[in-house]
């Protein structure tokens, strides 16, 4: 087996090309637009498929250097914070608690399903946790963290392979189901957005830019984002010193909320440079698109080898469970309105993929149908902070049985 690794600069450049490919495909294929399939999913998955072909048919393992990916995620969440209105955040308190309760309940169902399927296939029942909330709700980082425990203490030798393979399929599925779910709910219930029409991320497909954005407007936006990242790093270190572990992007989100709302209190409108608010939206759109493109580029589909039947069967039921739970429980419980439909688009990202997947699904829907400000506050908080704590408690409970 030959190996070839693309360096960081080339990998970043390739991600830009793939994002353009996804954009072009979306503009030319009406079916993709109809179901709000995100542009990064198209280009990123094409790259992952090409890398898989090189591995299986040409005996060549292609990898990418993707360190910049993590920076892009920080910029994206800092931008969400800078554009968040504290009044919307306060009004989101009750829906946030409800969504957290729903996601927590789903984790229990997810693990029970995984345990049942593992038992059905004659495996150790606890191996089902690796195809449950550990790798799906928790993501690949949680799978990597728990794998040694399953190997050393529970004797499940292929725990890591199960977790990574399940996360791979879950990430792809989460990217695909969000848009169709939202479209179904919006059309069935004749939903429409309410509010100012200004998107939280990027600009709509049909939106004309009436606000001029010059280079200094973008640079002014970039400055505020960098300030948010600096404060986010400091806040994260302070929280760690106090014994509270948070993902860094959550600290950057909190810093952005603090800076943005403090600025709004001091200055009614930030007109230092024209279009700076739109500049933040565009930078966040680019950051999110590039992050997910690079995340999908890095998928190694050959890790499914040898586990295809088990993983395929489990994931078929996990995806079906996620879709049914979202449509019949999440949407109705969250209010049966347009905001609830956008949250539903992101719920698959919470339960099957990642925080970025949830947001990119919601962003694709918002670009097509209109903004949902509360959704873009409560979903990142549930995904990025609260659900990780709940998931850890539930996993410990099941492992200790």
From TrEMBL:
Transmembrane among keywords: yes
Cellular component terms (Gene Ontology): plasma membrane
Localization terms from the record: Cell inner membrane
Membrane topology according to the record: Multi-pass membrane protein
Keyword Metal-binding (UniProt): no
Main localization of the protein described in the UniProt heading: membrane
TM regions (residue ranges): 6-26, 38-58, 70-86, 98-121, 127-147, 159-182, 217-235, 242-260, 280-299, 306-331, 343-364, 376-399
GO molecular function terms listed in the Swiss-Prot or TrEMBL record: glutamate:sodium symporter activity
Signal peptide: none
InterPro entries: GltS
GO BP terms: L-glutamate transmembrane transport
Keyword tags: Amino-acid transport, Cell inner membrane, Cell membrane, Ion transport, Membrane, Sodium, Sodium transport, Symport, Transmembrane, Transmembrane helix, Transport
Entry-linked Pfam families: Glt_symporter
Family: Belongs to the glutamate:Na(+) symporter (ESS) (TC 2.A.27) family.
Matching PANTHER family: SLR0625 PROTEIN, SODIUM_GLUTAMATE SYMPORTER
Described purpose of this protein according to its UniProt entry: Catalyzes the sodium-dependent transport of glutamate.
HAMAP family: GltS
Protein name: Sodium/glutamate symporter
